[in-house]
Amino acid sequence: MKRPTGSENVGRAATTAERILNVAAEHFGELGYQAATMTRIAANAGLSRAALYKHYPNKESLLLALHERLVTESVKRSRELLAADEPAPDVIRHWLENYLVSEGMRREIHVATLPDTQLPLLIEKEATEKALKKVRNALVAVIKRGIREGYFDSSVNPGQTAHILQALTFSLLRNNMSPRPVLTLSDAAQIRALSSTIIKGMMAHN
């Protein structure tokens, strides 16, 4: 019988780790961080507890890995959208709408984990800020292009505007986690109206 190569072992380990994270995300979303258990996560992932602990030694490490994956996926998607070869207003509109809708779909896991996990996630604060800075830099580049091409008003400050856009999206995501959100991110019409209002405020007035 052929023994698996080193690369095959690495591939299997990565696949198992992803399966564990998927199950953990479901459990955190359904039960909350405190109620979810490593025993149940292992069982639903089709693993023994010993096998689970080889990948993640405790529940906090699972949460941090899940947080890292969510941030990585979000940043990757944002940078792809912001690199689109479209007029600058359309690029920012599509990024804003896509980001809010996709993150809004993760509401359950955000709601379930946020109250219990502020301290663990502080460990990832620096790494998260570096990742978000990449998105902010991409936003700045699009805004500068929009000014050069005459779409955006020359008085628009690219750095400040990019910072405000990110702050706004974070505020909306936190609002979406409240029992009675002012704006529901699952409402596509509301999101489109919001993005249109923001873009209009940036447009050049000839």
From TrEMBL:
GO-annotated molecular function: DNA-binding transcription factor activity; transcription cis-regulatory region binding
Pfam families listed in its UniProt record: TetR_N
PROSITE patterns listed in its UniProt record: HTH_TETR_2
SUPFAM superfamilies the record matches: Homeodomain-like, Tetracyclin repressor-like, C-terminal domain
Keyword Manganese carried by entry: no
Residues annotated to bind DNA: 37-56
InterPro entries reported in the protein's UniProt record: Homeodomain-like_sf, HTH-type_TetR-like_transc_reg, HTH_TetR, Tet_transcr_reg_TetR-rel_C_sf
Descriptive protein name: TetR/AcrR family transcriptional regulator
Organism: Sediminihaliea albiluteola
